[in-house]
Write a structure and sequence with these properties.
Largest sheet of chain B: none
Number of strands of chain A: 0
Structural class of chain B: mainly alpha
Number of domains of chain B: 2
Radius of gyration of chain A: 18 Å
Number of helices of chain B: 6
Shape of chain B: extended
Distance between the termini of chain B: 50 Å
Distance between the termini of chain A: 46 Å
Oligomer: heterodimer
Number of strands of chain B: 0
Shape of chain A: globular
Order of helices and strands of chain B: HHHHHH
Number of domains of chain A: 2
Chain lengths: ~230, ~120
């Protein structure tokens, strides 16, 4: 079969599989531990293993999806705009918390990786832990970092943060909905924003704006500091 | 019919902003990824009242964002040995970093809001 046609079919199949998994997750009441992105990836990994298809072949064929990543990042702007009234009322604390939180997100990743003596490859991959995966891919591609590994780490930490962070904030009596939403958006990005948004629209708005803001801050600070961050 | 045209025009606008941002970043030798510039420009355009019809296409594409990151996630399977070699140190670095970041963010928000 023509590679272009096969590539198109594979890309559409991935999106259809993702939409189907999202529909199933909705049926089950959006369990936080079962992220649709992770489930879809596991299902496709299973199909590749069963058919003996090399992962690199799948990556090459699904290349068109990567081309949509840039436009999809731009598209996040509509969500921020939709919630502008709620956000404008707390614009200053939101902006301050996102800038400080995103900076601590990068700094904590770099320092902990050094203190715990992680291998250079893992140190580079954890720098973008706090941004949503599409931003992690953009930033790591920009600096020539380990794109794939960083993408995986960002998604998994989104899931872990979504499960642990609201409980921890509750224990620390940080129960303000706007503060919680912002914290989840910064530390557990799109996975967390999805999860809190389903239970609480206000927290979801803050989480959505916070994940976009964090992506922007990290995209601004990581590339210029890259040699120093991983050195 | 009008909706279809509006949807396609919306997608074209998003693609143009992404490509435009990438071109600007390359021309000015900016270190940040191009689509991020496109995103900032898009939020600015929407808030100034331009292209309100593009929001439908944008919401649709944003919902597929998870599907777009599936391929790199599948490829992470190939890195399983590297992750396993990281072991408890890697897990501790990631989990504690995520929790510290979240708590600092929430505290900063409360402090800046004065509540």
């Amino acid at each position: 079969m023509n590679t272009w046609i096969l590539s198109g079919l594979i890309s559409v199949a991935v999106l259809v599989a993702f939409v189907a998994v999202v529909a199933v997750s909705r049926r089950l009441g959006w369990p936080a531990a079962l992220s649709p992105v992770v489930l879809t990836a596991l299902a496709i990994g299973g199909v590749l293993a069963a058919t003996g298809t090399p992962i690199q072949r799948f990556r090459d064929l699904s290349h068109p999806l990567g081309l949509l990543l840039g436009p999809a990042i731009v598209a996040l702007g509509a969500g921020v705009h939709d919630n502008r009234r709620v956000l404008a009322a707390a614009g200053r604390p939101l902006a301050v918390a996102v800038v400080v939180g995103a900076t601590v997100g990068v700094a904590s990743a770099v320092l902990l990786a050094r203190v715990l003596g992680l291998a250079p490859l893992l140190r580079a991959a954890t720098v973008t832990r706090t941004v949503t995966t599409p931003f992690a891919i953009l930033v790591q591609t920009r600096v020539g970092g380990p794109v794939t590994l960083a993408a995986g780490i960002a998604v998994v930490m989104g899931v872990v943060g979504t499960i642990l962070l609201p409980t921890l904030l509750n224990l620390l009596r940080l129960r303000d909905r706007a503060a919680l939403g912002t914290a989840v958006g910064v530390a557990a990005h799109i996975v967390g924003a999805d999860a809190v948004g389903r239970h609480d629209a206000v927290a979801g708005s803050f989480a959505g704006a916070a994940l976009v803001g964090t992506g922007i801050v990290v995209a601004l600070i990581v590339p210029p500091l890259w040699p120093w961050l991983i050195g | 019919m009008r909706r279809t045209v509006e949807f396609i025009a919306g997608l074209a606008l998003l693609a143009a902003l992404s490509a435009g941002g990438t071109a600007v970043a390359a021309a000015l030798r900016l270190p940040l990824p191009g689509p991020v510039i496109g995103l900032v420009v898009y939020i600015t355009l929407l808030s100034l009242g331009f292209f309100p019809g593009s929001a439908v296409a944008a919401r649709g594409l944003a919902r597929l964002l998870g599907g777009l990151i599936v391929p790199p996630l599948v490829a992470t399977i190939a890195f399983a040995p590297v992750l396993a070699a990281g072991g408890w140190r890697l897990a501790l670095a990631l989990v504690s970093g995520t929790l510290i970041t979240g708590v600092v963010t929430a505290l900063t928000f409360r402090l800046a809001a004065g509540r």
